[in-house]
Automatic annotation (TrEMBL):
Gene3D superfamilies: Biosynthetic peptidoglycan transglycosylase-like (1.10.3810.10). This is Glycosyl transferase family 51 domain-containing protein. Keywords: Membrane, Transmembrane, Transmembrane helix. It comes from Treponema denticola H1-T. The chain crosses the membrane at residues 12-36. Residues 120-209 form the Glycosyl transferase family domain. It holds the Pfam family Transgly.
């Protein structure tokens, strides 16, 4: 009888130790997550609208932003979504904030050429998190497309529109706008002048259909 009781006590003790270790590991993970979150956020560049307004050369319409959002994120909803650190890292929902952070860091921070790839990624990711909180999504889209590369040495939607379609960007049709945005994704594959015309038209038709549903 005493032996049975001892076995039960030992079994209970093992379970208790296991649960205590599990709880300890969870607390350690939580603390690590909080510290990592604070570290990354502090590493990011604090951007305000005043810092970027001189680098924005266009103002997209709501429809153009919706199209651009779909092409870049496969989601027609362009607004940023507040996500936990890990989800924000892997989700494409806030991809435009990441692209803006990359552009801004490359253009305005001297550390860009002096630090390691890992440090650069941490700074960009922290900057992205800051953009999600402090920059309006419309300003983000306008900034990105004002500084995007369209092939043939062309930077920015305003110049790309004049070069490829000989018109102001405000007068682009949705199909023309889609072609230009595709060029920023892959300037060679979707090159408006020398790219595969049939491939480009098929992609434009697909995107037009999805964004008009």
């Amino acid at each position: 009888m005493e032996l049975v009781v001892n076995k039960k006590n030992i079994k209970f003790l093992i379970i208790k130790i296991f649960l205590s270790l599990l709880l300890f590991m969870l607390l350690c993970c939580l603390c690590l997550y909080i510290i990592l979150n604070i570290y990354i956020n502090n590493k990011g560049i604090k951007i305000k609208y005043e810092d970027i307004k001189n680098e924005i050369t266009i103002e997209l319409t709501e429809k153009q932003i919706e199209i651009m959002s779909y092409i870049y994120t496969n989601n027609k909803g362009p607004k940023f979504k507040k996500l936990p650190l890990i989800m924000d890292f892997v989700s494409s929902k806030n991809k435009m904030a990441y692209i803006m952070a990359t552009f801004y860091f490359a253009k305005n921070d001297e550390r860009n050429k002096k630090i390691t790839t890992m440090d650069r990624r941490i700074i960009i990711f922290g900057t992205m998190r800051n953009i999600e909180k402090n920059i309006d999504y419309k300003d983000c889209y306008n900034y990105v497309i004002s500084n995007a590369y369209f092939g043939n040495g062309i930077i920015g939607l305003a110049d790309a529109s004049k070069c490829y379609f000989d018109k102001d960007y405000a007068y682009l049709s949705n199909e023309e706008f889609i072609k230009l945005i595709l060029a920023t994704i892959n300037p060679i594959k979707y090159n408006i002048e020398i790219g595969n015309k049939r491939l480009i038209e098929e992609k434009v038709n697909e995107i037009s259909k999805r964004t008009n549903e």
